[in-house]
Design a protein that fits this description.
The complex is a heterodimer of chains A (298) and B (460).
Chain A: H1 2-11, E1 49-60, E2 63-74, E3 78-82, H2 89-96, E4 106-114, E5 117-118, H3 126-132, E6 133-136, H4 147-157, H5 164-177, H6 181-184, H7 197-209, E7 215-219, H8 227-240, E8 245-249, H9 253-259, E9 262-267, E10 270-276, H10 277-282, H11 287-293
Parallel strand pairs in A: 3-8, 3-9, 6-7, 7-8
Antiparallel strand pairs in A: 1-2, 1-4, 4-5, 9-10
Helix pairs in contact in A: 4-5, 4-7, 5-7, 7-8
Chain B: H1 4-32, H2 40-76, H3 80-83, H4 87-102, H5 112-150, H6 157-197, H7 200-205, E1 209-210, E2 225-226, H8 229-260, H9 263-278, H10 281-303, H11 312-337, H12 340-348, H13 353-382, H14 385-390, H15 408-416, H16 425-459
Antiparallel strand pairs in B: 1-2
Helix pairs in contact in B: 1-2, 1-5, 2-5, 2-6, 4-5, 6-16, 8-11, 8-13, 9-11, 10-11, 11-13, 12-13, 13-16, 15-16
The chains are: A alpha/beta (298), B mainly alpha (460).
C-alpha cells in the first residue's frame, strides 16, 4: 500500500493542466485506471439534471486532458469537483459553457446537454449558452468599471432591461443575492477594483447572477481569499443553490464537505468516483479517492 | 603624447586593481579562516572603483580647467597694446596663436609677439599634459593602495559596490534632466533678445506673419510682422489631420493584431507596420509632394474644388501614415498586457469579442493607448520635413485643409537658413518660435499625464 502511494506521489505532479506532457497514463499497475474503458465508481447520473455530460474527452494539442467523463449536474444542488492539480476539474467545467473555445488548441469531444439541448449543436449560440451557464473565476476579475457597471454589464449586453429602473432593480437584486448590497450601496459609482478581495469575488458572483443563469460554474472561487471572506462565499453558495445549479471546483476538502451535496473525484483526467458528499467523505469506494481525502497524496 | 593615453593607462590600472582586490580577499579568507562578507568579485570591483573613479574625476576637472588656465598664462606675457584690444579682437589674436600651434591656416604673417606666445602656449600645454599624467597616476595608485589595504573579510564590499552602482544610475538619469534644462535655457535667452525688439503680445496674438526685415539701415523694406498665430493654426491643422488618420487606423490595426490575428499574421504584420516608422521623413516628403499632392488636386478638380498643390490635407495625410506605428505598436503592447482574466470574465458572461474589446479591454488599456497617441501627437507637431516639402511656406490663417499653410517648425528652418546677421529680429524670431513650441508640447504632455493618472487611479 505504501509502495503504491509513493509511486503515485511521483506521478501526479508531472501532469499539470498547462503542461503539454503526455497524460496517457503509462500503464502503471499502481494506478488502477488503465485504458479507455475505466468506469466511474458510483452513480454519475442525477434524478433532476440540468446538465448531462456524456463521454467527454478534451485535448489540448496532443495532451489528452480529460478522458471519457460522464457526469450530471442536478437542479438546486451544489456539486463539488475535487482532485489533485492538473486532474482536469477546471477543464471539465470550462467545457460546460464552452470557454474552451477561446483556447485555440483545445478540442472537445462527447455530448453535453443543457436542458436536453446539445450545447455543441449548430443552432446553439455560444453567447446565449454563456448567459445560461455563468462562470466565476479563481482570481476575482472585476472589470475596470464602477461597481454598478460591473453588475449591469451582462444585462446590458443581453438587453435584459428595457429602461434604467429595470436595470437598477436587476443590479440591486443581484447585489443583494450576492450579499454585497449593504456594503456597496453607497459606493456604486466607485471602481469595482477598489473593493477588497472577498468583496470583489462577491461582485463577480453578483455579475454572474445578474444575467439570470441556470448553472453557475465556480473555479476555485475562494483560493485567493482569506478565511472570513471564504466563509462569506460559502454561505452565499448555500443560499444560491435555491435558485441555481452550482458546480464548484475546490482544493479544500472541508469546503467541499461544507457546501456540496454531491462530490466528484477526478484523477489524471478521469472521473474516478462520484457520489453523495457524505458517502464520499465517510465511505469512499475507490482506493484513489480514499487516498486523496485522507490526505495521503495530492 | 595625447592626454588620452592616460585613460588607457588608467584602464590598465583598474583591471590590475580588480585582480589584486579579488586575490587579497581570497587570501585573507584562507589565512584567517573567516568567511568573507561578500563574494571575491565584489572586493575586486571595490578596489577597481576606488582606483578608477577619483582619478577619472581629476582627469575631467583638469581637462575643463586647462584651456582657461593656459589662456590667462599666455595672454599675461603679451604686450599691453595687445591686451587693450576689445574682447572680440583679443579672441581673434588668441585664435591665431592656437592655429599656429596646431598648424592650421593663420591670418596674415604672424608677428614676433605671436610667435613667442605660440611657443609659450606649446610649452604650457606640454607641462599640463605631463602634470595631468602624473597626477592621474599618483591619485589612481594612492586610492588603489588605500582600498587594497582595506580589503579584509569584514569589509562590506557588496554594499559599497551596490551603492556606487546606484550613484552611476542616478548620474545617468540626471543627464536627460540637465539636457532638457540646458536646451530650454539656450532657447530662452535668444528668445528674450527677440522680445526686446518685438513685443511678446504682438508675437503671441498677431494675426500676420511676414518676417521680412531690412538688411541695411538705408534699405527700403518691410519692417516685418511677427504674429505667430497663423503658424500655430497651421501646425494644429496639419497635426489634427495627421491624428485623424493615425489614431483610428493605428488603434484598429492594434486591436486586430492583438485580438484577432493569428500568430503567423501577427509575426509578419507587426514588423511590417513598424517599418513605416523607419522610413526617413524626407522620403515621406517626396511621397507627399509628388504623389499625394497631385492626386488630391486631381481628385478635387473632379469634385469641382480648388485644391492647391501644396495643401495641408496632403501633408497631414502623409504625416498621419508616418505616425501610425507610434499609435499601433504601443497600443498593441498595452492591449496584450490586459490580463486574460478580464477577457475570460467578459466571455464568461456571454459577451461577444467586439463587446469585450469595446467595453472591457479598451478601458483597461486606455492609459497606455493615450500614451501612444501623445507620443504620436508630439511627433506630428514637431515634424518638419514633410511639411516643408508638401505644405508650402505661405503663412495663411485658414481652417481650410485644401489651402497651403505653414507650420512653426518650417518657419524656424526658413528663418535660420537666411543670410541675415544673427541678432536681427528675423533670425531671433526662430528662437521665440522654438520656445513657444517647446512650452506648448510641454503643456500638452503635462495635461496628458494628468489625464492618464486620473484613469489609473480610477481603474487600478
Amino acid at each position: 500500500m505504501s509502495q503504491a502511494t509513493k509511486v503515485e506521489k511521483d506521478t501526479v505532479p508531472q501532469v499539470g493542466a498547462g503542461t503539454v506532457e503526455e497524460t496517457s497514463v503509462p500503464a502503471a499497475p499502481d494506478i488502477r485506471v488503465v485504458g479507455d474503458t475505466y468506469r466511474t465508481v458510483g452513480d454519475y447520473t442525477s434524478a433532476n439534471p440540468v446538465v448531462r455530460a456524456r463521454n467527454v474527452d478534451v485535448f489540448y494539442g496532443d495532451n489528452h486532458a480529460i478522458q471519457n467523463v460522464s457526469l450530471d449536474i442536478g437542479k438546486n444542488q451544489v456539486i463539488s469537483l475535487i482532485g489533485p492539480s492538473g486532474c482536469g476539474k477546471s477543464t471539465f467545467i470550462r467545457c460546460l459553457n464552452r470557454m474552451n473555445d477561446t483556447i485555440d488548441i483545445a478540442r472537445v469531444h462527447g455530448e453535453i446537454l443543457l436542458d436536453g439541448e446539445d450545447i455543441h449543436a449548430r443552432r446553439m449560440d455560444v453567447v446565449m449558452l454563456r448567459a445560461r451557464v455563468g462562470m466565476v473565476f479563481q482570481k476575482p476579475n472585476p472589470f475596470p468599471k464602477s461597481v454598478y457597471d460591473n453588475v449591469a454589464y451582462g444585462p446590458r449586453i443581453h438587453g435584459l432591461a428595457r429602461n434604467r429602473q429595470e436595470l437598477d432593480r436587476i443590479v440591486r437584486s443581484s447585489l443583494e443575492r450576492a450579499g454585497l448590497w449593504t456594503e456597496v450601496k453607497d459606493r456604486l459609482d466607485e471602481p469595482g477594483t477598489g473593493l477588497s478581495g472577498g468583496q470583489q469575488q462577491r461582485l463577480c458572483i453578483a455579475r454572474t447572477i445578474a444575467v439570470g443563469p441556470e448553472v453557475i460554474l465556480m473555479d476555485e472561487p475562494c483560493s485567493a481569499l482569506d478565511p472570513i471572506a471564504t466563509a462569506h462565499i460559502e454561505d452565499l453558495i448555500d443560499e444560491l443553490k435555491k435558485n441555481f445549479a452550482i458546480v464548484i471546483v475546490t482544493h479544500s476538502m472541508q469546503q467541499a464537505a461544507r457546501v456540496s451535496q454531491r462530490t466528484a473525484y477526478f484523477h489524471l483526467g478521469r472521473l474516478i468516483e462520484v457520489g453523495d458528499t457524505d458517502q464520499i467523505f465517510t465511505n469512499p469506494q475507490h482506493e484513489l479517492t480514499e487516498d486523496y481525502i485522507t490526505g495521503r497524496f495530492g | 603624447m595625447p592626454s588620452s593615453t592616460v585613460l588607457v593607462a588608467l584602464l590598465g590600472m583598474t583591471v590590475v586593481a580588480y585582480v589584486l582586490g579579488r586575490r587579497r580577499s581570497v587570501r585573507a579568507a584562507s589565512n584567517t579562516g573567516l568567511t568573507c562578507h561578500s563574494l571575491p568579485g565584489y572586493y575586486g570591483s571595490y578596489v577597481a572603483i576606488w582606483c578608477a573613479l577619483p582619478a577619472l574625476l581629476l582627469y575631467c576637472l583638469w581637462q575643463l580647467a586647462e584651456p582657461g588656465f593656459i589662456r590667462t598664462q599666455v595672454l599675461a606675457t603679451m604686450s599691453a597694446a595687445t591686451l587693450e584690444l576689445p574682447e572680440a579682437e583679443l579672441g581673434l589674436v588668441y585664435n591665431d596663436i592656437r592655429n599656429l600651434v596646431e598648424g592650421n591656416i593663420v591670418s596674415g604673417e604672424p608677428s614676433d609677439e605671436i610667435l613667442a606666445a605660440a611657443s609659450r602656449y606649446m610649452s604650457l600645454q606640454r607641462i599640463s599634459n605631463l602634470g595631468l599624467m602624473l597626477a592621474v597616476l599618483i591619485i589612481g595608485l594612492t586610492t588603489l593602495g588605500w582600498a587594497f589595504r582595506r580589503v579584509e573579510p569584514g569589509l562590506r564590499a557588496r554594499n559599497k559596490v551596490e551603492r556606487s552602482m546606484e550613484l552611476l544610475l542616478m548620474a545617468a538619469s540626471t543627464v536627460a534632466i540637465f539636457t532638457t534644462i540646458g536646451i530650454f535655457l539656450s532657447v530662452l535667452f535668444e528668445a528674450l533678445r527677440f522680445f526686446q525688439q518685438v513685443s511678446p503680445l504682438e508675437f503671441l496674438f498677431g494675426l500676420s506673419w511676414s518676417p521680412q526685415t531690412a538688411i541695411r539701415p538705408d534699405q527700403v523694406g518691410s519692417s516685418g510682422a511677427f504674429g505667430a498665430v497663423p503658424l500655430f493654426a497651421g501646425t494644429l491643422l496639419i497635426s489634427g489631420i495627421a491624428m485623424l488618420v493615425a489614431v483610428p487606423v493605428g488603434l484598429m490595426s492594434a486591436i486586430y493584431l492583438s485580438e484577432y490575428a493569428n500568430p503567423q499574421v501577427r509575426s509578419f504584420a507587426k514588423p511590417m507596420l513598424e517599418v513605416l516608422a523607419g522610413i526617413p521623413t524626407v522620403v515621406y516628403g517626396y511621397f507627399a509632394a509628388l504623389t499625394v499632392g497631385p492626386l488630391l488636386r486631381q481628385f478635387g478638380e473632379g469634385l469641382g474644388l480648388s485644391v492647391s498643390s501644396e495643401s495641408a490635407l496632403g501633408a497631414g495625410l502623409v504625416m498621419g501614415i508616418m505616425i501610425i506605428p507610434f499609435v499601433s505598436s504601443l497600443s498593441d503592447d498595452v492591449i496584450n498586457a490586459v490580463p486574460q482574466d478580464l477577457r475570460d470574465g467578459s466571455y464568461g458572461l456571454g459577451a461577444t469579442q467586439s463587446e469585450t474589446i469595446r467595453q472591457v479591454i479598451l478601458p483597461a488599456a486606455l492609459p497606455g493607448i493615450v500614451g501612444g497617441i501623445l507620443l504620436a501627437a508630439s511627433r506630428a507637431i514637431g515634424e518638419t520635413m514633410i511639411v516643408v516639402m508638401a505644405a508650402g511656406l505661405a503663412a495663411n490663417l485658414t481652417a481650410n485643409p485644401l489651402e497651403a499653410v505653414t507650420t512653426v517648425t518650417v518657419q524656424i528652418v526658413t528663418l535660420l537658413i537666411g543670410d541675415q546677421e544673427f541678432d536681427s529680429a528675423k533670425t531671433l524670431a526662430a528662437f521665440a518660435l522654438g520656445l513657444l513650441l517647446f512650452v506648448t508640447t510641454l503643456i500638452l504632455n503635462i495635461i496628458a499625464l494628468r489625464v492618464v493618472r486620473r484613469y489609473r487611479e480610477q481603474y487600478e
